[in-house]
Task: inverse folding
């Protein structure tokens, strides 16, 4: 591997990913219309996806054998700083869009004092500021600190803080059980999707796939079980009656998300029974492994965008 | 994490849907013979004191509320000038609930006997109930977006520099 070909594939995959996230955000906004706002859904989707990628890139090297770990950590550095930068920029944008929404002014007329007031004095703004700080810290640590397994753990923690910071003030503000279930659900989903992105971005050759994929598969099984359990508990807590599943914007989005989750679980199960044994036995080429992951990732991106829409739905 | 969990537990209560107005003073479509001293709306959950807005617009299109809205728990209120012409007065409100959602709306009441009060500035130019109407346009001289563009450029440049340095 190496050279121009994988780079082209990667930029094509990146462009495809951006397209999928944008399209899914629009769909999420349309499903919940008129209860959500498009800029908010979009900026949330970008921020969440970037944070998920950061988490995955920080965690993935742990899945390789200790003596090969160095290679994955090194390879993850550049994508990690890029994802961190996107995350930081998106989180900043998210605070600004939210402040403009709260103050009922167009974004371009929003002033600095209002933004600062929003970020420091409202619970939503403070949660956003916490996420901005987590993203900024992640960027600084990635670029400046030595790249070791311990530092990677810190990075994973920062991503997790950023991902869950807003749950405290969101829909589940008044329900401890729902909030906890949602935090568990979010982190499990993030770990699953993020680790898969990191697989595609950093794992290069057949031998690496053979070592990392079985452990990823193990991890993803636990993640899926946890996220289904957490998601079901949170939905149960949030919805008053089954009729809300199609009658309200929130319910329609949730239904779409359940459908996407079902597709993902099916794909994961197929991969586990077909792809995994082949990859473990070094029978699958790295290219084939990567294309399989890309398809699954596209569906995951849809799920994440729907999740962002869910959180932005009023 | 423990603090977060504790904070969530502390707020454990009824799992309610979003904030909504449950009462208003004067009540919707009330007919009043004289002006109220203030108008208020009560919501089903606590509102954040920041970014609350409430205005009273008279039949003449002028602003009849005075001062800044006050938030006390779940109630948002604003003072009212002695009212002028008889007719329909509209109360516009906009507030952020504790869970961060923006609630906005309006209700009306009638003044049956004309008062002697003098009107405030015309309300036509102000967006309904926006906090920005009176304060932010004057106070918020510097818009925030140039800073955002600057931050994007700095972060981008920083990452490029870091990537170059690595390879």
Result:
């Amino acid at each position: 591997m190496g050279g121009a070909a994988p780079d082209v594939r990667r930029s094509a995959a990146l462009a495809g990913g951006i397209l999928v996230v944008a399209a899914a955000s629009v769909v999420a906004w349309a499903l919940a219309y008129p209860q959500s706002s498009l800029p908010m859904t979009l900026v949330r989707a970008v921020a969440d996806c970037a944070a998920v990628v950061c988490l995955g890139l920080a965690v993935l090297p742990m899945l390789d054998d200790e003596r090969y770990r160095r290679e994955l950590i090194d390879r993850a550095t550049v994508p990690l700083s890029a994802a961190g930068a996107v995350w930081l920029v998106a989180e900043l944008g998210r605070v600004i869009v939210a402040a403009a929404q709260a103050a009922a002014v167009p974004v371009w007329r929003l002033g600095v004092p209002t933004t600062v007031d929003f970020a420091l004095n409202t619970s939503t703004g403070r949660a956003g500021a916490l996420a901005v700080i987590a993203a900024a810290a992640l960027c600084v640590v990635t670029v400046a600190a030595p790249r070791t397994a311990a530092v990677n753990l810190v990075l994973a923690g920062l991503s997790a803080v950023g991902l869950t910071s807003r749950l405290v003030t969101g829909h589940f503000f008044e329900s401890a059980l729902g909030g906890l279930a949602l935090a568990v659900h979010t982190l499990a989903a993030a770990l699953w999707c993020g680790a898969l992105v990191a697989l595609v971005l950093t794992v290069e050759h057949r031998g690496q796939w053979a070592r990392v994929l079985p452990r990823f598969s193990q991890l993803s099984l636990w993640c899926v079980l946890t996220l289904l359990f957490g998601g079901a508990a949170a939905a149960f807590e949030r919805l008053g009656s089954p009729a809300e599943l199609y009658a309200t914007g929130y319910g329609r989005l949730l239904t779409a998300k359940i459908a996407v989750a079902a597709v993902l679980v099916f794909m994961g199960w197929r991969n586990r029974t077909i792809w995994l044994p082949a990859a473990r036995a070094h029978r699958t080429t790295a290219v084939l492994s990567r294309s399989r992951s890309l398809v699954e990732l596209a569906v995951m991106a849809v799920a994440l965008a729907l999740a962002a829409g869910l959180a932005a739905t009023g | 994490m423990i603090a977060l969990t504790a904070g969530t537990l502390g707020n454990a209560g009824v799992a309610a849907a979003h904030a909504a107005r449950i009462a208003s003073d004067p009540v919707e479509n009330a007919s009043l013979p004289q002006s109220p001293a203030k108008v208020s709306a009560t919501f089903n959950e606590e509102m954040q004191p920041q970014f609350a807005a409430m205005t009273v617009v008279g039949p003449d299109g002028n602003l009849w509320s005075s001062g800044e809205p006050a938030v006390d728990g779940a109630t948002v209120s604003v003072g009212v000038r002695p009212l002028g012409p008889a007719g329909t007065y509209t109360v516009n409100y906009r507030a952020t609930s504790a869970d961060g959602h923006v609630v906005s709306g309006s209700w009306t009441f009638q003044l049956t006997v004309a008062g002697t009060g003098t009107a405030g500035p015309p309300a036509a130019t102000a967006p309904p109930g926006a906090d920005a109407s009176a304060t932010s346009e004057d106070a918020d001289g510097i818009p925030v977006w140039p800073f955002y563009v600057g931050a994007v450029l700095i972060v981008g440049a920083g990452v490029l520099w870091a990537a170059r340095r690595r390879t």
Summary: The radius of gyration of chain A is 19 Å. The longest helix of chain A spans residues 69-103. Confidence is low (pLDDT under 50) at residues 1-5 of chain A. Residues 6 and 236 of chain A are 44 Å apart (CA to CA).
